Amino acid sequence: MDRPLGVEKIVHELQFSRKERVVYLFRFLERQADPDFQKRQRMEHVRTLLQLCCEPTDLEELVKDVLAQKCLKEADVTLAEDDYSDFELRLQAFKTLAERDVPQGYEREVLLACGHSNAEELQSLLRQGVSVEPLEVQLRHLAQVALEGRDSEPSRVHEVECQACDRLTRPKEVVNTLRLAQQRAHKAHEKATRRWRLLQVLLEAAGLPSHDTASQASPLALCHCGASKTRLMACGHVACEGHETCNCDAKQVAVTLDFQKCQESKEVSSPCTKIDAMVCAIQKIVAENPKVQCLVFSQWTSTLRKLDDALRAQNLDPFLTGRRGKAATKKIILMTPDFLYSERPSQEKGQKFALESNTTIRHVFLTNTFLAPVKDAVLEQRIIDFAKTNQLGVASTVVLHRFVMSDTIEANNELQETI
Predict the structure, then answer these.
(1) What is the pLDDT of residues 200-251, one digit of tens each?
(2) 194 contacts: CB under 8 Å, gap ≥ 6
(3) 396 near 358, Cβ under 8 Å?
């Protein structure tokens, strides 16, 4: 495709910091290992990865969230197993009492006792001949406690439609429900544990401190052939390059565990690598030629806001569309592509929007790929046409800057295949 007259294109290839790359690889792999991941979710996954290229999630917050989810699912498994064991004990007591010589007319007491007694009381009922009290006395006492509550819990426990009692009258249905809940809890726990293992392996490979000293975070190596590169699969196993095969049910998607090219971690106050690079480029352009105008496009308004803050921190005065003020004389204008498709793009907050006429060069910054490649090319041309026009005619030169994160969905031309 021929380059348009008066248009120069520059691609800035950037490298993540170690922390940013850990977050990106984790988000890339966690969905691939999810058996519930459907085709209809791919677009959402692509959007997430593209946004991570512009504004990665804070690693510390990600670790806290993944660990909290793991602990929560462990608690869910414990609760499911306890609920199942508790019902089995109650059902066993209910069946045992039904087979014993219980006096006629005590059916209600048996139901109340088995539905509301604690484990120790149920075990006492099951131990025939151990208690000094007759069975009828025990049943009446436990039934009274179920109706009136214990001393430590004076509120009434029993209701007309008591769920605890009702469960004992339909044991097969309840057992199936509890088994299903138990299976779901174990499945969710396995998923949360796999995510935590993935994150720990990535942290170790990146040389970053692990946040769980008790965890077995060492890579689960499948082979030791001594290849120069190791690959991490979505299931959490690590293999040498070319041997990425595993018996796990997860899809065999692997990434290279190579963090040598990553930049050193930025300061805490730094937004991210891409925003830092754009600020540096804009600073240099404006310092070399005060008459140029810079237009920045991003489909993520959050990215534009972070870029706006970063530019102002460097004593630059950008104009973010959607705010009050005149944009015409601004050297730096931040906007979303939707602005070009509005019915009246010349109007912004009731004021006339126009590019500065006293300039011959405009620099256009594209912070990300705009989803589908075909639409991206069309949108790129529309942005160029918009940048070349002004009140007095056409700018002689438009310099198009694309900022691409290396070894990501932006750089590997994977969008078409993924979508």
Answers:
(1) 888 888 888 876 655 544 445 445 555 556 777 777 677 766 655 665 655 5
(2) 33, 235, 236
(3) no
Name the amino acid, one letter, at 147: L
Output the CA angle 309-371-331, nearest 5 degrees: 35
* Residues 237, 389: Cα–Cα separation, whole Å: 54
What's the alpha-carbon Rg for the chain, to the nearest Å? 32
249 is written with which tokens?
């049910």
Q: Alpha-carbon distance 157 to 135, whole Å?
A: 22
Q: Which two tokens stand for residue 197?
A: 């293992």
Q: Tokens 């088995």 — which residue?
A: 114
For the cut 80, the answer to whether the pLDDT of residue 320 exceeds it is yes
Give domain 7-17+265-418's CATH architecture: 3-Layer(aba) Sandwich (3.40)
What six digits make up the tokens of 318?
């950008």
Locate 163 and state its tokens: 């769920």
- Cα dihedral 376, 275, 348, 325, rounded to 10, equals -160
Residue 163 pLDDT greater than 60, yes or no: yes
Task: Give the model confidence (pLDDT) of 5-62 as tens digits.
Answer: 578 888 888 888 888 999 998 988 887 766 556 555 677 788 888 888 888 888 889 9
Domain boundaries, the chain: 7-17+265-418, 58-207, 219-262
What is the C-alpha to C-alpha distance for residues 141 and 128, in angstroms, rounded to an integer? 17
**Distance in Å from the first CA to the final CA of the chain:** 24
